[in-house]
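Hello forum,

I keep getting stuck at the same step: I have a sequence, I want structure tokens, and every attempt I make locally crashes halfway through. Rather than fight my setup again tonight, could one of you with a working pipeline run this one for me? It's a single chain of 110 residues.
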Amino acid sequence: KGLYNLAEAHAQSKNYPKAIQYYLKTAELSRLHRNFELLLRAYNGLGKTYHLQGNYNEGLAYYEKALDLARYLEDYLSAAAVAQAQRHREAQGQGGHAQQRDVVGGRGHA
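Reply #2:
Ran it on my machine without issues. Output:
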């Protein structure tokens, strides 16, 4: 996260080449360590910095990477939540025959 903070500081001071250098290093290490939240922030920072430099195509490419990753993470987290709920029901001894709940209203359905 330290590299990301350096990137942000350089972007704030309009030292865009250094900001890009640190965002790219942050992205590289985030991919390696599977820190997808930080990777998302690095892609967004790259998009913003390229945009501020007037390099709109490169900026858009990184914004799209950030959006794709956000969608992936949303799908992944949704799937994980469903799996966790299923494990909880099975641990309760209810298995797949548990009452389903209307998420919005909390009403039970047989």
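Residues 95-110 have pLDDT under 50 and may be disordered. If your local run keeps crashing, start a new thread with the error log.
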